[in-house]
Amino acid sequence: MSQQAYTLPQRAPLYQAPPFDYKAFAKVSVFCRVDEAAIRAALPTQFDLRGDVIEFFIMDVPAGGSLGSYAEGGIVVPMNYQGRPGGHVLYEIVTNDDSMAVGREVWGYPKKMGEVDWNATDTSVSAKLSRRGTSLIEIDFKADGPAFDKPVLHPRFQTRIIPSPENAAAETQIIENSLGQSETLRHAFGKADIKIGGNANDPFSDFHIREVVGAEMVVANFVLAFGKIIG
């Protein structure tokens, strides 16, 4: 008897089961203070807001295990779930279909397909995240900036929504997901210029930046494994 496929299509599944072994991914992040009301308006009701400093990020993944190479970016906000602190990925844009599907279907990451322009050296990153012709995040980062205190954004707590095939109802699960075997290869604090755009379908621009708290560039390895259904 053949083994049951992990996902569709059964004869040639779009993605394999976790874990995914990421090697030397590069990520640029800008941490910004925004209005708490904007975060509350977007945060799922199952979570409690914890602070007004959020992360705008863009990352390049040259080797994501069986997911191959791709890029992505998005917004992470600080929150609590039943008193436990962590981070919720509020919006996320990715450049390949298997990463999009596995992120949504397994962990509840709100991934959509889009585009990333990425140009980096050892000390600088110029990156742009966009979808359907609309620029969402533009970051121009240069290393050699001041250190700063970052909000706690791990583990991730996501809402996995499972639509009903019979009507417009849906089941919602709370998924906790942590990165494993993380190894930092290079890290630099820096300074960054950031521009935020958006539209009704991708409302990144709901977040008006009041203050840039700090910026960093990270190159690292990690393993993305199964999560836990906790609610």
UniProtKB/TrEMBL annotation:
<dbReference type="InterPro" id="IPR010451">
    <property type="entry name" value="Acetoacetate_decarboxylase"/>
</dbReference>
<dbReference type="GO" id="GO:0016829">
    <property type="term" value="F:lyase activity"/>
</dbReference>
<protein>
    <recommendedName>
        <fullName>Acetoacetate decarboxylase</fullName>
    </recommendedName>
</protein>
<dbReference type="Pfam" id="PF06314">
    <property type="entry name" value="ADC"/>
</dbReference>
<dbReference type="InterPro" id="IPR023375">
    <property type="entry name" value="ADC_dom_sf"/>
</dbReference>
